[in-house]
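Please review this one:
***
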Amino acid sequence: MELNFLKKAKDMQDELVDIRRDIHMHPELDYDLSRTQEKIKKFLKNEGIEYVESAGSGICAIIRGNGEKTIGLRADMDALPIQDMKKCDYASKVKGKMHACGHDAHTTILLGAAKILNSIKDQLKGNVKLFFEPAEETTGGAKVMIKEGVLENPHVDRVIGLHVEEGIETGKIGVRYGVVNAASNPFTIKIKGMGAHGARPNTGIDPVLMSSYVIVALQEIISRELPPTDAGVLTIGSIHGGTAQNIIPDEVTISGIIRTMKTEHREYVKKRLREITEGIVKSMRGSCTIDIEESYPCLYNDAAAIKDVVSAASLIIEQNNIITLESPSMGVESFAYFSMERPSAFYYLGSGNKSKGTDHPAHGNLFDVDEDCIPIGVAIQCKAVYDFLK
């Protein structure tokens, strides 16, 4: 007899809504997630699910079935430093902090899936690992969890993640094949010259002039050196130097961001940024230091993994409610760290409902989630897990 995961999820919707609203009212940031972590641990203990702490405030739990295969489900836990301006009973009670990206819903969905899957663990032909990740909005707790070994003992064969999406109606999901999210590399360039009077530039070495050449030249990496069919962005976000109109400063600092859609392009743009900057500065008698940070990698959807999620979802919400997303996002997502280590699938769970006011953009102070999406997310996760292990 086929298991009806959607009915099971809807039967516990009131419990899940209570969990989500409690987390929403008490948002925590980055790795400082003590209250959220304790709530998750208490839930897991009550369900008899074993777990260990990971990445400080994160959790790795496991449901042991009957088989060798293991699949992972991931949810992020942290909120954002934004003031909640919603007028509702469950608005944030913490000044300047808000779940403005739906991580409260993600955590709730994973807890719901954990409860259902644990209740049928004797029927599972393998194991389920549950990853509750801290610091998704900052440095990415996923890479710390992976370094600590959450993908081993037992070895995880596949990982699935989701993200609520206000731009997709509740009852639908959005999927993309191939690259889903860009890689990110923030950078800082310090260009050093020699200060002088503005009226006598010949007595100094002008870092402002050097910076202007560098900024223009860096744009040509994207427009002239990457294939025009492949997306990439190099943005200069700030430039600082000088104290007065008639003084040539000693130093100028430039900072910005690189976003690329392929690992090979990521490495190429970083290499060319260094070569171009150093070449220009040296030719103009200056010197420079360049710091390129290794932020989130590209998020790749494995073809077989995302196909299986689509197949599972079609039995929960029907095929016509599955939207294929044509373009990847230039935004970043720390689930990418999992996708770089194991075949993975990441999809967007529709949570938009204009009549309920849940169509406001994420990372905004009116953001909210249509809670009717929660049992749908739970059911799809459970079905995807069950089918993969079967």
User: Anything to note?
Assistant: The chain has a mean pLDDT of 97. The chain has two domains: 5-181+298-389, 183-292. The first helix runs from residue 5 to 11. DSSP finds ten helices and 16 strands in the chain.
